[in-house]
Amino acid sequence: MTDELLEHNLIHRINVGDMLTRAAAHTPDREALVDGPRRFTYRQLDEWVNRTAHGLAARGYGKGNTLAIISGNGAEFLVAYFACAKSGIVVVPINLGWRESEMAYVFRHAKVRGLLVESQLLERADQALVAAAADAAKPHEVRDVFVAPGTGSVKAGSIAGRAYLDFAELATGQSAAQPEVLVGDRDPITYMYTSGTTAAPKGVVTSHLAVHLESITGAFDMEMRRSDRVLCMMPLFHTAQLNAICTPCVLVGATMVLLRAFDAETVLDLTEREKLSVLFALPMMYRALVAGQTAKARAVESLRLCIYAMAPMPNHELKAALETFNCGFALLFGQTEMTPTATIFRPEHQLSHMGAVGTPGINVQVAIMGEDGTLLPRGERGEIVYRSPHVTERYLDDEKATSAAFKHGWFHSGDTGHLGEDGMLWFGDRFKDVIKTGGENVASLEVEKLVYEVAPGVAQAVVIGLPHDRWGEAITVVAVAHPGKDVEPDAIIAALKTRLSPFKVPKSVIVVEAMPMTSTGKIQKHLLRQKHAAHYKGEGRP
Fold first, then answer.
1. Bridge partners of 332?
2. What are phi and psi of 62, to 5 degrees?
3. Helices and strands in the chain, H and E counts
4. What is the pLDDT of residues 197-252, one digit of tens each?
5. Is the sign of the CA dihedral 216, 220, 223, 225 positive or negative?
C-alpha cells in the first residue's frame, strides 16, 4: 500500500468512524453520550475512540480482523464499535439472548479474534469459549479477551485459560490522533447474525457504505437535529438500536442517553430529568409508559418523537399514546439485511393509514414481486423486495443464501405485502417461517425439531407465531399425539426451557386431533394461525 493510496482514501472514503470524527470537529463541546453518571462530549468520546483504536493496533489488530462484543448498553460498546470502524476491524455483536452454544457457533463462523466482555457476563463468555473449543474439527480463533466494567468492576483473572485485559488499558498511553488506515467504502463494519428458516444463524455482512447511507436516511426521514436528546435503551447488539438510532445521532451530533433495560418508571423519570426529545421502544413498552404517565404525570413536554419497531401498534393503544404524550409517533419497518430501515410509517400517517408499515426511506426503493420475478402492480400481493445501498453485501460464507436473496436483481425480504395506490406499504405475512417475538427473530424449524426430540408422544408438530399483546407474536406449538399416547403441554415447555434460549421457548402448546393438510401432505400453517388467532387474547396487558 502506497502513501498516495492511503491519502486518497482518507480524503473521500465513506467510513462509519469518520461520522464521529466530523461530529467532534463540528461540535467538540456538545454532549455526545450519557451513560449513568458518566458524561462525554464529542471531543472526549472521539479521543477515547482514537486511543482505543491505537491500542488495538498495538496488539496486532488490523483490517479484516474481527472483534466480538458481549455487552449490554454501555459506553464501551460504542467506543469499541467506532474504534473498530476507524481501524477496518469487523465488529460481531453478540445477542445476549443466545445460548452459549449459539455464541460458540458465531465465534467459529465469524473467525472471531478478540472478545470485549462486560464483567457481569464473564461466566457466560467462559462457557461459550469452552463450547467453541469442544469441536476439535472446527477450532475457534479467539486469542484475546478485553473486559469492561459493565455493572461490576474489572479484576485480574482469566477465562477458558486466557488471562484477560482491562478494556480501559487499551487506551492507556495511546495517542488521541486520528488513526490512518485504508478502509474501503464497501468493507464490512459488522457481521450481524440473524435467525433464518434454518437453525444456524446467518451472518449479515454490513458495509461502511450501508451504515453511512442508512444513517443519512434515518436522520433525514426522522428529522433528527443536533439539539435532540435520544434515549437508547433497546439492545446495542441489535442493528435497530445501533444503526437506526445511534449512528444517525452521531451523524447529526445529537446526544445519546444510554439505558440498560426498560422500566416504565425509570424511562419517564429520565425523560423529565434529561429533557429527552426522542424515544425508541417496542409497542408493549409504550403501553406501560402510557399507564405509568397516567398514574403519575411527569413533565415530558420535551418529547417530539416516539419511534417504535417490530409491528404496528393496535389502534386503541396508538390513540392512547398520542393523547398521553402529545408528540409525533413513527414506526420503523425493515430487517437486519436493510441495516435495518426500509420504510417509515410517519407521524402524519399514523391515524390515516392505521396498520400500514409506511413509505420508503429516501435511499430505498420498494416493490412487490410475483413468484416468477415479475414486479406486480399496486394493490396486488406478493413478496416485498428492495433496492437500496443499505442492503447487505452478502451472507458470510453462504453463497446459496446470498444468491437466493439477490435473485432477479432485487433483495428478497421473505415477507409478503402490497403497495396501496398512494405508495403506502402494507405488510401481509411471512414467506419464511420466522416468528418475530419481543423484537427477536426465531426460526420455527429449530423449535419444531426439538419438540420431536423432547416429546416422543408427538406425531406431528408445527411452531407458529400467534398474535400477542405483549410479544407481538407468541411462539406456539400445535401438536397431534400418536394414537394411544398422551401429550403433556407443561412437560414439553419445561423440557424446551433446558434446550432453548429463553426468548425461543414456546408460550403454549395446543393439542389438536388433526392438522389441516394440503393435497401434497404439507401442513397448512396459515389455517392454524387463523383458527387460533385469539388464543392469547387479553394476555400481556398491564
1. 344
2. -150, -170
3. 17, 28
4. 445 789 999 999 999 999 999 999 999 999 999 999 999 999 999 999 999 999 99
5. positive
